[in-house]
Amino acid sequence: MNEEFAQILAARTVIDGRLVRTPVQILDGGAFSDSLAGRTLVFKLEMLQRTGSFKIRGALNKLSQLSADEKARGVVGMSSGNHAQALAYGARLEGVEATVVMPDYSMDYKVAATRAYGAKVELVSTAELFSTYERFHQERGLTPVHPFDDPHIIAGAGTAALEVLEEVPAPDCVLASVGGGGWISGTSTAMKRRAPQAKIIGVEPEGACVVRRSLDAGRLVKLDSVETVADGLAPPFTGEIVFDRIQRHVDDVLVVSDDEILDATRRIIDVLKVVVEPSAAACVAPLLAGRLNPPEGSTIAVMLSGGNLSAGRLRSLLA
């Protein structure tokens, strides 16, 4: 068996019974948009997962792999919010002390939730994010838990795709938002193994399209700055492991505007009756904007992840 896929199967065993099997909602595309009539849309509602996103799948899987000594030293992560909350919650489940380095643009409610789950939070500038994470690892001896560029993190993310395939075995197209790349890496690894015919499409905001730029350059690049309403998709860099997975398994990465992301956010709330943050809605934007036009009869799996949005933030975004 392919080792990368075997890691996903192993991760499913690790998280089984400890996390939520999030629901799948299936509807005719015409109910979502006239332009999608005749297509079947399959929404994985991962925003209903514990801590509000898929991130806990990978965090808990990674924490379960640590040695007793690594756990005793405590862990350190870096994140603008969703991985931060997941690592804090997972560490609490595992009885491990967690420290999370967060950029100072992080939403207040995501910082507060991370602290509420029991983690210590260090707020730094975007430029200092990675160096502070590394310094805490080197100087304090904390065990690093990377938000996306780690095989165990990727394997955990891939377990959500397995759940989709158990209900819809042969999607023609799969859409997932792209931040650092862990979600699309895990999703594509599982899908290409079990549903090789599926086209895997990643979606990034134009103000933080580090993966698209890296693909165009044929190498890893780093953004000097990021600016997008989709704060969960805003890391200024990607990683070698996820970049390799994306190059091998992902058919295309599309870039969408903030306005298109907000239009998708509104449509999801109106039709699916669930609250998503813009980071989750981004993957729907190409369908509504006409950037992606799967043929009639297609089954399109949409991997929605990210529901960490305050009422005030929702009002300000959609006003």
Architecture overview:
- The mean pLDDT is 96.
- This protein has helices spanning 3-15, 55-65, 68-72, 82-94, 108-116, 129-140, 151-167, 182-194, 210-217, 240-249, 258-272, 278-281, 285-289, 311-318, and strands at residues 24-28, 40-45, 75-78, 98-103, 120-124, 143-144, 173-177, 199-205, 252-256, 299-304.
- The protein has a 6-stranded mixed sheet with strand order 1-2-10-7-8-9.
- It has 319 residues and is an alpha/beta fold.
- 52% of the residues are buried.
- Helix 1 (3-15) crosses helix 7 (151-167), helix 2 (55-65) packs across helix 7 (151-167) and helix 8 packs parallel to helix 10 (240-249).
- The chain is globular and about 55 Å long.
- The chain has 2 domains: 3-53 and 151-318, Rossmann fold; 55-144, Rossmann fold.
- It is built from 14 helices and 10 strands.
Structure summary:
With 319 residues, the chain is an alpha/beta fold.
Please describe the biggest sheet, giving its number of strands, its sense, and whether it closes into a barrel: 6 strands, mixed
Number of strands: 10
- Classify the beta-strand content into a percent band: 15-25%
Spatial sequence of strands, sheet with the most strands: 1-2-10-7-8-9
Number of helical elements: 14
CATH class of the largest domain: Alpha Beta
Instruction: Return residue spans where pLDDT drops below 50 for at least 5 consecutive residues.
Output: none
Approximate helicity band = 40-55%
Number of domains: 2
